[in-house]
Amino acid sequence: MKSRDTARIQSIETCGAVDGPGIRYVAFLQGCQFKCRYCHNRDTWSMAGGKEKDITEMLREIQSYIYFYRPNRGGVTVSGGEATLQMPFVINLFQQVKNLNLTTCLDTNGCILRYDNELEQLLNCTDLVLLDIKHMDETQHKKLTGMTNSYTLNFARYLNDKRIPMWIRYVVVPGWTDQESNIHALGKFISTEIRESVEYVDILPYHELGKYKWAQYGETYELENVTPPSAEEIKRIKKILSDEYHLNIR
User: Fold this and answer.
1) β-sheet bridge partners, residue 6
2) Distance, CA of 82 to CA of 31 (rounded, Å)
3) How many CA atoms lie within 13 A of 17 on its CB side?
4) Which pLDDT score is estimated for 96?
5) Which residues of 177-198 are buried (b: 16+ CB within 10 A; e: fewer)?
6) Short-list 176, 132, 167, CA closest to 250
7) Per-residue pLDDT for 193 more than 60?
8) Above 60 in pLDDT, residue 204?
9) DSSP string, 103-147
């Protein structure tokens, strides 16, 4: 049975600046359904990895930094891996964080299998969802992550229907996610189906910082010969989404 009071955690950042607004306490939880070929947190895939951490200890840490977090909508972000795999713990943490007048942010791949009361409890105490869209084409998504993209897109629609604020994150991987047709599909999906809830779209360049972790597991890093996109390519993609689909791009 999943615990409300403890979680398997890979790492924690006490002063994160990129995983939501303001300065944030960011907890990276263990476990993930996706097996992304470019994953830089390969060590988070297994639910048995990391170490067990008690919610009381985490809240004590959060309170010690509280005056750094409160300005500019700062607060607590739970990431992964995939945070929703330890949902009871995240609900408990978020509920208590809200009592501290901090914002809560859920970083997720959107692979939600059940739309039930537990999910409602989580969303009721979530201020912002950082939703990772990996690829708009289902066949390519399966090649990239090992799973369908239908869960993610359906969850995005669900969040939009409930008017829960979202930041969409999209990683540009040369040869994998940078196709013109895919960028336009992304722009069309956001602008026509989930626009009411999307505050920003973050276009993130692929990087190689986590590939050494694959070697630690004795596995082949399949994107070994893929180089990060140029600044000009990122600028071009941002311009398409901004100019043609009128999205707020960062």
Assistant:
1) 54
2) 6
3) 1
4) 98
5) bbeeebbeebbebbbeebeebb
6) 167
7) yes
8) yes
9) EEEEEE-------SHHHHHHHHT-SEEEEE---SSHHHHHHHHSS
Residue showing tokens 């359906």: 154
Tell me the C-alpha distance between 87 and 103, whole Å: 17
Residue 220 reports pLDDT greater than 90:
no
Q: Which two tokens stand for residue 206?
A: 């692929």
Q: Phi, psi at residue 124, to the nearest 5°?
A: -65, -20
Which DSSP category does 225 fall into?
T
Show the tokens assigned to 102.
Answer: 């901090």
By residue count, the chain amounts to 250
pLDDT in tens, 143-184: 999 999 999 999 999 999 999 999 999 999 999 999 999 999
Sheet of strand 24-29: strand arrangement: 51-54, 6-16, 24-29, 75-79, 103-108, 128-132, 166-172, 198-205
User: Average pLDDT, stretch 110-124?
Assistant: 97
Cα separation of 4 and 6, whole Å? 6
Provide the CB-side half-sphere exposure for 223 (13 A, CA).
Answer: 25
* 26: Cα separation from own chain's centroid: 11
* Percent above pLDDT 90 for the chain: 89
Query: Which residue matches tokens 């010969």?
Result: 225
Give the pLDDT confidence of 31-44 residue by residue, as tens digits.
Answer: 999 999 989 889 99
Dig out the tokens for 216 from the structure.
Answer: 């630690």
Determine the Cα–Cα distance for residues 159 and 115; give it in Å rounded to an integer: 11
Note the CATH number of domain 6-245: 3.20.20.70
CA separation for the pair 250, 247 (Å, rounded)? 10
Per-residue pLDDT at 1 exceeds 80: no
